[in-house]
Specification:
396 residues; alpha/beta; Aspartate Aminotransferase, domain 2; Aspartate Aminotransferase, domain 1; 2 domains; five-stranded mixed β-sheet; globular
Length: 396
């Protein structure tokens, strides 16, 4: 499979499975072992000479994990991929690999909260690494933020909650002209709907817990990029910080990848219908969804994305916390939870956590109003989901 150019559905259902190596098992076996034994001294000595390509200890490599990594790399059009124990395991390892003490990072306002805390808190306090946050919708803002000691541009496109985009080709060209590395959190779109590597970005990071898995039963992350970068990360940030992927979780992800294309297309169709309905609703002031014609960067979204998944947000017509709480509490089919990307529909009001973490002026600076509601549109019947929301709108 590796040497042939197949389409997405075929890659997800075949690439990397190597049935012939597993006695023809149509579902590859689970390698639930911690270490690998060797026939003799020379064999283990050869493995230690090339740990990035050898099975020695499952903290580094495991056959079940490797099948998933090869499949994800093929999906993204990249040379390699490396699974981690969580999305933050991937984010922190990727960022740490490209920066050193005293360096500078340019990043985007509105990135994922824990990633923001890692960059602006942990790295600043522990490593004296500076960061500048910009409005990434204009490439000029990124250009102006670059300093002599800038070593990394960290992107998230679309961003969390309000889904602003960055022009990925333009950012990649800028970074390469200045010898700066680029990393993007591509969880929202997945490589199925957006391929940053092919647009010149150096590395993708993902929360595999979301669409890759799709069943809300795994916490995992992945880094996708060049063999050189990931080989170096393997023996440094990945091995030394220990954010390894467990074989059983990898086996569950392998199961989920079989249906990823079907699930993502269904999520996309559901969210498109929901965005149209919400846009016309009298108690909705604004929707945030890159796939809708009202989105300010609709042209860029169509240019660099081929789909949009399940996640969207909308602003209900109230700032009254009690009414917002009543709206959320009255929902039945939309379950209240912080994650997304599974088969079930979910709802979250960012004001719940953001009001505890950020001052009001910072909240407003991120274009987040108290009445912002985020939903992940699952695979239930769309008419039932609309009826559930309609019932909640009666609380406003």
């Amino acid at each position: 499979m590796k040497n042939r150019k197949y389409k997405i559905g075929t890659i997800l259902n075949n690439d990397g499975d190597a049935y012939q190596n597993h006695k023809g098992a149509i579902v590859p076996p689970l390698y639930q072992n911690s270490l690998f034994a060797f026939e003799n001294w020379d064999a283990i000595d050869e493995a230690f000479s090339d740990p990035s390509s050898s099975f020695i200890y499952s903290r580094l490599h495991n056959p079940t994990c490797r099948m998933v990594e090869e499949k994800i790399a093929a999906l993204a059009g990249a040379e390699d991929a490396k699974l981690t124990a969580s999305g933050m395991g991937a984010i922190s390892a990727a960022i740490l690999h490209f920066v050193n003490h005293g360096d500078h990072i340019v990043t985007i306002k509105g990135i994922y909260g824990p990633a923001n805390n890692f960059i602006n808190g942990f790295l600043k306090e522990k490593c004296n690494i500076e960061s500048t946050y910009v409005d990434g919708t204009d490439i000029e803002n990124i250009k102006e933020a670059v300093k002599e000691n800038t070593k990394l541009i960290y992107l998230e496109s679309p961003t969390s909650l309000t889904y602003e985009l960055q022009d990925l080709r333009a950012v990649a060209d800028l970074a390469k002209s200045k010898g700066i590395k680029t990393v993007i959190d591509n969880t929202y779109a997945t490589p199925l709907f957006q391929k940053p590597i092919e647009m010149g970005i150096d590395m993708e990071v993902h929360s595999v817990s979301k669409y890759f898995c799709g069943h809300s039963d795994v916490v995992a992350g992945v880094m996708i990029g060049s063999k050189k970068d990931l080989s170096e990360i393997l023996t440094k940030e990945h091995a030394l910080l220990g954010a390894k992927m467990a074989p059983f979780e990898a086996w569950l992800i392998l199961r989920s990848l079989r249906t990823m294309k079907i699930r993502m297309n269904a999520h996309n169709d559901q969210a498109m219908k929901m965005s149209t309905w919400l846009y016309d609703h009298p108690k909705v002031n604004k929707i945030h969804f890159p796939g809708h014609h009202s989105f300010p960067q609709s042209a860029l979204a169509k240019k660099q994305m081929s789909g949009f998944g399940s996640l969207l947000s909308f602003e209900i017509d109230t700032d009254d916390i009690n009414k917002i709480k009543a709206f959320v509490n009255s929902l039945t089919l939309f379950h209240l939870g912080v994650s997304w990307g599974g088969h079930e529909s979910l709802v979250y009001a960012p004001v719940i956590s953001y009001s505890k973490e950020l001052p009001p002026e910072k909240f407003a600076e991120m274009n987040i109003v108290p009445g912002l509601i985020r939903i992940s549109v699952g695979l239930e019947d769309i008419d039932d989901l609309k009826a559930d929301l309609e019932k909640a709108f009666l609380c406003i």
